[in-house]
Amino acid sequence: MPTRSSEQAARSHPGVQIAEAPLGSLLLQAVRAHAALAASLLADLGLVAPQEVVLLYLQDHGRTPQAELVRFLGRDRSTVTATLQAMQRAELIVRTPSQTDQRAMNVDLTGTGRALCPRIRTAWAELERLSFGRLSHPQREQLAAGLTAVRDAARARHEDAHHEDAHHEDKETRS
Questions:
Q1: How far apart are the C-alpha atoms of 150 and 24, rounded to whole Å?
Q2: Dihedral class, residue 17 (left if φ above 0, else alpha if ψ from -120 to 50, else beta)
Q3: 48-64: b or e for each residue (b if 16 or more CB lie within 10 Å)?
Q4: Does the pLDDT of residue 9 top 50, yes or no?
Q5: Residues of the chain with pLDDT > 90: what percent?
Q6: How many CA atoms lie within 13 Å of 22's alpha carbon, on the beta-carbon side?
């Protein structure tokens, strides 16, 4: 049976630490800690990630094709479909067949989903305060610039690899 001190040690463990990737390790630790805090705040609203960003996207963009939500979330279609089905069962959204393409579904907010949006925005503001409130304004600007550079470098590499794979597949198809 775990003791209280062993449970505390498990909770306070810094997480993944790879000597060859100290910044990547730290970034992963920060992302996980941020996600755990977000999950706690979302649970208070009866939501799980990424339900809140779907609701905010629909509030900002109105009725949206489900395929657009797949692109926006950057997840596979089956995962997004499962998320949307759960949200529909919770009466946060409604999915209806497209008027122009019967194979496609459109997604829109219900009154319940729309009513949650201000509370979601408040939770995200609280998450921002809790996560970054100890940073000075210049530190926040430096962090934003650094994270933007990391994100852009990772995206560029991912896109290059994707184009190389597509080019390789295209060559194999022609052979």
A1: 10
A2: beta
A3: eebbbebbbbbbeeeeb
A4: no
A5: 75
A6: 1
Yes or no: say if 55 and 116 are a contact pair by the CB < 8 Å rule: yes
pLDDT at position 16: 80
Vertex 101 angle, CA 95 and 105, to 5°: 15
As a whole number of angstroms, the distance between CA 135 and CA 129 comes to: 10
Q: End-to-end CA distance of the chain, in Å?
A: 62
Residue with tokens 């629909």: 58
Q: Give the pLDDT confidence of 104-163 residue by residue, as tens digits.
A: 999 999 999 999 999 999 999 999 999 999 999 999 999 999 999 999 999 898 777 766
- DSSP classification of residue 84: H
3-state secondary structure of 100: coil
Better-scored residue on pLDDT, 77 or 161: 77
pLDDT confidence of residue 170 = 56
**Cα distance between residue 66 and residue 78, in whole Å:** 11
Q: Are 101 and 91 in contact (CB under 8 A)?
A: no
Contact predicate 47/120, CB 8 Å: yes
Q: For the beta carbon of residue 146, count every other beta carbon within 10 angstroms.
A: 12
Distance CA 152, CA 141 (A): 16
